[in-house]
């Protein structure tokens, strides 16, 4: 991966030939997406998505398409793109490694250290709190239009973590502790199920997080790329 190579070589910038939004899936990413779809294809119809929402980033769209082609959902199910699921925007820090930020944007490195990753917003970019704001609007849309249906979301690591923050009513400390434990694996599954008896009127309850069984079942390598694509369903 370009990001890993840049960090390994101590480079300030990641060698990118595309906008991040246009970066396609690697061959391994395509294999992982197919494995996920094949795993879902083994479920009865009652266990497969009725609604598919995806980030408009090319790699997320390709993941959703490969998943569908592999039998993970109905072949005619439309993939609904929603820009609120896009990757966190890094602004002037886009394409910089950790060393690059320290050397080329020392003020931002200090601001991030002072404010923490949850609230730090680089010029032209977003904080986690900004991502959460747009995802709260997304969840209102899901509730209004897709209530009672099985919704699958194909998005990115920060999006999955921020959705956990919203759905589970977590604190900043709690979600950052989860983030520190491990990166969300590519094509891992995070699942929520509606439990009528939970809370006063029922609520979404976490069933599994960062599940890589779809890949290991198909002997597909499990990888994790910080802030890249993952799949979530609920």
Q: How would you briefly describe this protein structure?
A:
The protein has 234 residues and is an alpha/beta fold. Helix content is 41%, strand content 15%.
Task: Please explain how this structure is put together.
By secondary structure, the chain is an alpha/beta fold. The protein has a single domain (2-233), classed as Phosphoglycerate mutase-like (Rossmann fold, 3-Layer(aba) Sandwich). Helix content is 41%, strand content 15%. It has helices at residues 2-8, 27-41, 58-69, 98-104, 106-115, 128-146, 157-167, 172-181, 213-217; strands at 51-54, 79-81, 151-156, 189-195, 203-211, 229-233. A six-stranded mixed β-sheet has the order 2-1-3-6-4-5, with helices on both faces. β4 and β5 form a beta hairpin. α4 (98-104) crosses α5 (106-115). The chain is globular and about 55 Å long. It starts with a helix and ends with a strand. 30% of the residues are buried. The model is unreliable at 226-231 (pLDDT under 50).
For CATH, the homologous superfamily is named as Phosphoglycerate mutase-like
User: What is the number of strand segments?
Assistant: 6
Shape: globular
Q: In angstroms, what separates the terminal alpha carbons?
A: 30 Å
Number of helices: 9
Structural class: alpha/beta
Strand order of the main beta sheet, please?
Answer: 2-1-3-6-4-5
The CATH topology: Rossmann fold
C-alpha Rg, in Å?
18 Å
β-strand amount: 5-15%
Order of helices and strands: HHEHEHHHEHHEEHE
Name of the top-level CATH class: Alpha Beta
Domains (count)? 1
Instruction: Give the second-level CATH assignment, the architecture.
Output: 3-Layer(aba) Sandwich
Query: Low-confidence stretches at least 5 residues in length (pLDDT < 50)?
Result: 226-231
Mean pLDDT: 89
Instruction: Profile the largest sheet.
Output: 6 strands, mixed
Estimate the helix proportion, in percent. Answer: 40-55%
């Amino acid at each position: 991966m370009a990001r890993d190579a840049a960090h390994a070589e101590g480079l300030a910038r990641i060698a990118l030939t595309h906008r991040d939004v246009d970066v396609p899936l690697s061959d391994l990413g395509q294999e992982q997406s197919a494995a996920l779809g094949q795993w879902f294809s083994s479920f009865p119809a009652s266990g497969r998505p009725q609604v598919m929402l995806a980030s408009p980033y090319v790699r997320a769209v390709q993941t959703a398409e490969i998943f569908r082609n592999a039998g993970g959902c109905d072949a005619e199910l439309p993939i609904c793109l929603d820009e609120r699921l896009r990757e966190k925007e890094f602004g002037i820090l886009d394409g910089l490694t950790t060393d690059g930020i320290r050397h080329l944007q020392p003020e931002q490195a200090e601001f991030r250290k002072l404010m923490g990753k949850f609230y730090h917003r680089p010029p032209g970019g977003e904080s986690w709190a900004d991502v959460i704001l747009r995802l709260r609007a997304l969840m209102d849309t899901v509730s209004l239009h897709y209530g009672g249906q099985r919704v699958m979301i194909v998005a990115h690591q920060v999006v999955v973590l921020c959705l956990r923050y919203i759905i589970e009513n977590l604190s900043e400390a709690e979600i950052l502790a989860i983030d520190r434990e491990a990166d969300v694996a590519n094509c891992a599954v995070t699942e929520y199920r509606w439990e009528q008896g939970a809370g006063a009127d029922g609520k979404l309850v976490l069933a599994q997080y960062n599940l890589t069984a779809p890949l290991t079942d198909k002997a597909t390598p499990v990888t994790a790329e910080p802030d890249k694509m993952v799949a979530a369903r609920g």
